[in-house]
From TrEMBL, chain A:
Protein's organism: Dendroctonus ponderosae
Keyword tags: Endosome, GTP-binding, Hydrolase, Lipoprotein, Nucleotide-binding, Prenylation, Protein transport, Transport
GO CC terms of this entry: early endosome
SUPFAM superfamilies hit by this protein: P-loop containing nucleoside triphosphate hydrolases
GO biological process, one term: protein transport
Taxon lineage: Eukaryota, Metazoa, Ecdysozoa, Arthropoda, Hexapoda
Protein name, as recorded: small monomeric GTPase
Domain of life of the native organism: Eukaryota
Main location group: other
Gene Ontology MF terms in the entry: G protein activity; GTP binding
SMART domains the UniProt entry points to: RAB (SM00175), RAN (SM00176), RAS (SM00173), RHO (SM00174)
Gene3D superfamilies listed in its UniProt record: P-loop containing nucleotide triphosphate hydrolases
Family: Belongs to the small GTPase superfamily. Rab family.
Automatic annotation (TrEMBL), chain B:
Chain ranges of the Rab-GAP TBC domain: 65-253
Record key words, sorted: GTPase activation
Gene3D superfamilies tied to this protein: putative rabgap domain of human tbc1 domain family member 14 like domains, Ypt/Rab-GAP domain of gyp1p, domain 1, Ypt/Rab-GAP domain of gyp1p, domain 3
UniProt-listed PANTHER family: GROWTH HORMONE-REGULATED TBC PROTEIN 1, RAB GTPASE-ACTIVATING PROTEIN 1-LIKE
Keyword field contains Methyltransferase: no
Domain of life of the native organism: Eukaryota
A molecular function (GO) term: GTPase activator activity
Physiological role: May act as a GTPase-activating protein for Rab family protein(s).
Keyword Membrane: no
A Pfam family per the record: RabGAP-TBC
Protein name in the entry: Growth hormone-regulated TBC protein 1
Transmembrane segments: none
Gene that specifies this protein: 109546702
Length: 215, 325
């Protein structure tokens, strides 16, 4: 059952390297596509009309990175401004955050910057923050220039990608980039018996294959 | 197989999920149909004149469920919404005429196709989404302290599915937001945050082992229960169960929400205690709608009231005072 040593048995019986578990939170204005990014990443699906998230939704996904299995515990939060007071509960203790904006809406980019500032001030000091300019498939209606966002990201030490939950562009990549940047030390492995090898083969938590992964 | 007896779409227009448990549902419906028939006859004999006055008989009848065809009239009467409508200087149509194109209207429009996209009345038809827009926008413009709060789309949407009446939905929504759940949906959401703390205290008192276990796992209470309270269980529990809860909410007020929360925790006590990490715990919360005893709305409401008989309004009031934001 619970595998406290931090190593997992792969389905084919081969022993695999360590398992790391990370808490990741998605933040950003309402309707920029936070839930859609998660749905694409976790289930490979896209719904043109994704239900608006109330409070927050919780999902998990596991990816393989070289000899390490990275399990993301994902908190997908509600975007409306007034839910702001609930947000600290979700980003507290998070090792990673994806701050999402909609490239067709300048206001959402402003809101993303506010989230970044808040995370830098209030979240864990070592949090890995990624900025996602979503809805790249609507680039013909673009209101936020790629260069502008990239410069902002560089100045603030953020990972940055334009993504499209609709076409899947850069969705796995941004999670993978985060996984690569996260420290994979013993601290994050097998905490409290919470890492279980069997889960890797269950339902939608089947490990994704990353760039150099699970060969 | 039981499956063939039921359509893929339920009576409120919701598509049943792929993992819908037809067997459990069939077992429940086989006896619930008899209950519904019996209750309908009782209502028709006692409330022949549709004169719904608040008294002990009414309370008892409502706890056993309002027949679907009487819900609109009964909700309007016992919640005070009908009185509110009569007392209002402006009619709904007049208030609706004041909708302006504003940021709020735009926000509401974005949420329309994101409200119950799995419901045929919202997905395939224009009428209900249009009515929903009118109700939400009218409400937002006449109450600037609340405006539009995400979550109200689900509440108003479900009231519309039940009543199919735009005007009644507006007055019921107004009564819910302004009287029954005060300060839940304002910008600070202070009433909601208070009630989330109250639930925390109640669980600590009534189910200390569960409370300790959840704390040990490190899940703040609000993570599991925020949506329960914001959506008053819409999109959280099975529709029929939600409506039975709302029957009581419209008559008795918000105390029912704490009773239901405690009942859900108690029903899932063993499952919660067996979890070893956050994702297992969240899975238990997510699957509560599939519990046979939650699907059996009639049995569930019995359980809710049997369980928490001692939950006094005074107790709730004092806890709310303690946690006032």
């Amino acid at each position: 059952m619970a595998n406290r040593s931090g190593t997992a048995q792969r389905p084919n019986g081969q022993s695999q390297g360590k398992i790391c578990q990370f808490k990741l939170v998605l933040l950003g204005e309402s309707a920029v596509g936070k839930s859609s990014l998660v749905l694409r990443f976790v289930k490979g699906q896209f719904h043109e009309y994704q239900e608006s998230t109330i409070g927050a939704a919780f999902l998990t996904q596991t990816i393989c990175l070289d000899d390490t299995t990275v399990k993301f515990e994902i908190w997908d939060t509600a975007g409306q401004e007034r839910y702001h007071s609930l947000a600290p509960m979700y980003y507290r203790g998070a090792q990673a955050a994806i701050v999402v904006y909609d490239i067709t809406n300048q206001d959402t980019f402003g809101r993303a910057k506010t989230w970044v500032k808040e995370l830098q001030r209030q979240a864990s000091p070592n949090i890995v923050i990624a900025l996602a300019g979503n809805k790249q498939d609507l680039a013909n209606k673009r209101m936020v220039e790629y260069e502008e966002a990239q410069t902002y990201a560089e100045e603030n030490g953020l990972l940055f990608m334009e993504t499209s939950a609709k076409t899947a562009m850069n969705v796995n990549d941004i999670f993978l980039a985060i996984a690569k940047k996260l420290p994979k030390n013993e601290q994050n492995t097998g905490q409290g018996g919470s890492v279980q090898g069997r889960r890797l083969t269950e339902g939608n938590t089947e490990p994704k294959t990353g760039a150099n992964c699970c060969k | 197989m039981a499956k063939s007896n039921y359509s893929k779409i339920d009576e409120y227009g919701f598509e049943r999920p792929d993992d819908f448990d037809y067997k459990t549902y069939d077992e429940f419906m086989s006896h619930y149909m008899r209950t519904l028939t019996r209750r309908a006859l009782r209502w028709n004999s006692v409330y022949k004149n549709r004169n719904f006055k608040k008294n002990n008989t009414m309370k008892r009848f409502i706890r056993k469920g309002i027949p679907a065809n009487l819900r609109k009239t009964c909700w309007m009467a016992v919640s005070g919404a009908e009185q509110c409508r009569k007392n209002s200087a402006l009619s709904y149509q007049q208030l609706r005429g004041k909708i302006e194109n504003s940021q709020i209207s735009e926000t509401i429009k974005i949420d329309l196709p994101r409200t119950f996209p799995d419901n045929i009345f919202f997905l395939n038809e224009k009428q209900l989404p249009n009515m929903l827009y009118n109700v939400l926008a009218t409400f937002a413009h006449q109450n600037s302290e609340v405006g539009y709060c995400q979550g109200l789309n689900y509440i108003a949407g479900l009231i519309l599915l039940v009543t199919k009446d735009e005007t009644a939905t507006f007055w019921l929504l107004k009564t819910l937001v302004e009287h029954l759940l005060p300060k839940y949906y304002v910008v600070t959401m202070s009433g909601l945050l208070t009630d989330l703390d109250v639930v925390n205290d109640l669980v600590q008192k009534h189910e200390p082992t569960v409370h300790r276990h959840i704390n040990n796992i490190g899940m703040p209470w609000a993570m599991g229960t925020t949506k329960w309270f914001i959506c008053i269980f819409a999109d959280v529990l099975p529709t029929e169960t939600v409506l039975r809860i709302w029957d009581c909410l419209f008559y008795e007020g918000s105390k029912i929400l704490f009773r239901v929360a405690l009942a859900l925790i108690k029903l899932h006590k063993l499952e919660i205690l067996e979890t070893t990490d956050l994702s297992e715990l969240m899975t238990v919360f997510k699957n509560m709608k599939n519990h046979p005893r939650v699907i059996d709305c009639h049995g569930f409401m019995h359980y809710v009231f049997d369980l928490s008989g001692s939950l006094s309004s005074r107790k709730i009031d004092s806890l709310r005072l303690k946690h006032t934001k």
